[in-house]
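User: Please run a holo structure prediction.
Assistant: Happy to. Please share the sequence and the ligand.
User: Here you go; the ligand is manganese (II) ion.
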Amino acid sequence: MLQSFEAAGSSALSAKRVAALRAEMVRCGIDGFVVPRSDEFQGEYVADYAERLRWLSGYSGSAGLAIVLADKAAIFVDGRYTIQVREQVDTDIFEPRHLIDEPPADWIVSNLKQGQVLGYDPWLMTAAQTDRFAKACEKAGAEFKAVEHNLIDVVWQDQPQRPAEPVVMQPTQFAGRTAQDKQTELRAALEAGGADAVVLTLPDSVAWAFNIRGSDIAHTPVALAFAIVHGGDQPAELFIHPDRVPEDVTASLDGVANLQPREAFESALAALGERGARVLVDAAWAPQAVRQVLTDSGAEIVAGSDPCIMPKACKNAAELEGARAAQRRDGVAMVRFLAWLDRQAPAGGLDEISAAQQLEAFRAETDELKDLSFDSISGAGPHAAIPHYRVSTASNWEIEPDSIYLIDSGGQYRDGTTDITRTVIVGEATAEMKDRFTRVLKGMINLSRVRFPAGTTGGNLDVLARLALWQAGLDFDHGTGHGVGSYLSVHEGPARFSKIDKTKLKPGMILSNEPGYYKAGAFGIRIENLVVVREAEPVEGGERDMHWLETLTLCPIDRRLIEVALLDTAETDWLDQYHARVRSELSVELDGADLAWLEAASAPLAR
Ligand SMILES: [Mn+2]
């Protein structure tokens, strides 16, 4: 299986491990040490060797950071993990703090003393983050100091090896462009920005730039590697051990990138400095160590965004064709799963884990599944009310009669990444469930149908998915949607549908449309389709360039949970047309009971 349901993280050894870290702090002459969850690559998933925060504290969330001093320690997590952190860590050792409301900088100012030294690993913290921490230390009269070796790596006896999986090509058939062509675009961006070179530190940027993929970490098909792209006609440098790169990949990269072992990265950065190069570094993502080596060796830092982020987000025609094919395949697996669930669930005996495993099996039967795009969120009854619920053997719940079941899941296929949520009723729904489900659906449809002028942001549109909930005095506490990669990260920047987002939506961007409603301790609802921003036909008599959202995801939405009277005609029409399209695209791939299920589930609503 591609996911594990073992309860992750334990604080049982925390006291011993924190004591070992403190002893190492004394040996190194520092008074505190920062332990982020991030690795050198700042992604959502890290390899086992980099699970330093989990090893130390037991906390297993995807984001967070601890600061350990001689006599106290704090752990900072965002709103998704405030409950989880208290369940996982020993709060006698770590004081849980809210990452945004009670930021590390404030804690540093109140807890570091004059003359003290707070150590950090400059590979694990971004340049921007380091600036904030250094400022806070300065306020406290303390010093923020990079250490030579990560102290956790010193005290972690059985730390796993770094991954070294083989690299594979992402064929042009799926990537739509050659690496050579992308390099030409990157060089133009360098020239426009007045830089001689750019350091790529995000593995998905490296994957995009060179049309490579890997399997170093779970759920995101990247190779953990850095790269330097040079202006002029010098080939790029890709820092990944040549042993990991099969011959066909080396041949494809010939003339595009020279392969270098990881150990050569610092000296290549220093070489840029020695010739006084102007180097583009994205301080929001690049490790502080990268900026430090460059400035120490005499390079001029050009501040700016990673130039791969925007072209990677705007999928080309081949990537969109791939996305549509991946959605048809994934939709068939989802239909088989939902049909199976409808047949099995009434008899009882299904639980959150067995359901998630069955869906994974249907995806695997496509023979095209490379990985899941994240650990499935499989929530029965009250667990569906926890938006980021992660089932484990300790929490596994039976899917009971007359309850809601929510499954948020996705697959990684070579032609595309999927992410879909469906909420279904097992047995009879209450009037409240139907009202809430229909309001969430109205929001999802409202956003799906929007036409908007070029230049509109995800922040401008987010409200559309909330209006029907707001009318009933309700809301949901997460963004409406996130960007999605092309056989890359399921959470991809820069665009989002969220109250605060300021990124202009551009044609080719794939985003999720996933409003929800959560009643703690009772039930939860989320409906998620992926959409892609498209240029619209001009409106007759209109004056602006308009965009629209094409829905990519193909899977029925549970009609049994809909209060038809709450939908207006346009919404009912949208749903009926969507279901007709789902039926026509998927029925050729189904037969027997599954086909019969699809036909019933996609029938028009009774008006
Ligand atoms: Mn999603």
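The longest helix spans residues 317-344.
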